[in-house]
Amino acid sequence: MKKIAGFVLLAGILLTGCGSDNDWVANVQAPAQYIGEQELPITIEIKEQGQPVTGLQVKAQFEMKKMDHGKVEAMFTDGGNGTYTGKVKLPMGGEWLVNVNMSNGKRTEEQTLQFKTERVEAK
């Protein structure tokens, strides 16, 4: 019985040590409106424990939340201060999911985020 209790305690300590305190947290910022057939500027902000994370390789895959328009991939450039910028040509406005892949060469993390943008016609 003591061996089982010890194992459960050890497992709990290990799981607690693998918590989300050191996870990268991404946030996507996209314009609320864009003109169709043009690239949409998108910024992904990445922090760890509230501090900006720089020096990452960031790529993302965009897909519409409620429709199938395929997937749009984009690479992002480190703009400093935890911001990564890129341009994406989306086929239409609406609710989008973005799967963000972040890597520093030793560690890789993925997050799925959402944003909404509305297409407006050029005048």
TrEMBL record:
Domain annotation YtkA-like: ranges: 22-100
Lineage: Bacteria, Bacillati, Bacillota, Bacilli, Bacillales
Transmembrane feature ranges: none
UniProt name for this protein: YtkA-like domain-containing protein
